[in-house]
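Figure caption, in words: inputs first, then the predicted bound structure.
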Amino acid sequence: MTDLSTSAKNTWCPGCTNFVILAAFKNVLNDLITEGYSKDNFVMVAGIGCHGKIPDFVNINSFISLHGRDVATAEGIKIANLGLTVVSFAGDGDAYAEGIEHLVHAAKRNTNISLFVHNNQVFGLTTGQATPTSPKGYKGRSTPFGSPEEPFNPLLVVLAAGATFVARAWAMDPNGLRDIMKRAIKHKGFAIIDIIQPCITFADTREFYKDKIVPLGSDWPTNDLGKAMEKVRENSGPVPVGVFYEIDKPIFEDQI
Ligand code: SF4
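Bound structure (iron/sulfur cluster present):
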């Protein structure tokens, strides 16, 4: 077992589900290092937000980027050194608001990086403003009377843009996270996991999702884009988690 701990003081709220994501990622690193991946060849990138502290707590190469620029930074790192395994972390504000243009184009290019989005449906670090994935009616500091907007569907957008590995995970399920993260990192091409994550301080969705989260069946992932799009569009009833879509396609780096 590789020691991946650091001496950085953790300032996430006690009980934050970021701790689960962090633990799952460390387990994945240990699994992959055991399988022969080099610890020195991993690079984790983050944007700005509560998630953005995650590189402080993992003893591997890392780069904390600007708000919404983590995907572009991760692409640059990968293109500059093809031997690296690059994993980018982002918040929903990062990836789906400020960074949406980088997300769409990384998916379109099929750059060989992984993106793990801590989708807590709120700007947590700045104390509770609505993000693109906040539910309609969400009351926070920027929407005191309730958000009038329908939430954005990130997986539908990345499927349309050309992502070759598209998954959803539940932040309260460390084993499920570990499995999907590992598969995303091993996928050759642009892999995204939308991690539904309760923010226990500003958007505590634990009860809402508790009985709704269901794993995708054994006939998933599909390589049928239409079937995957139809599945990720489901927005009432159960919330499926797992890998929806995976295909082989030439990666950007091989073509430049
Ligand atoms: Fe976690 Fe929310 Fe606290 Fe941020 S504000 S550390 S996401 S519980």
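The helical segments are 18-34, 70-80, 92-98, 100-109, 154-161, 174-186, 206-210, 225-232.
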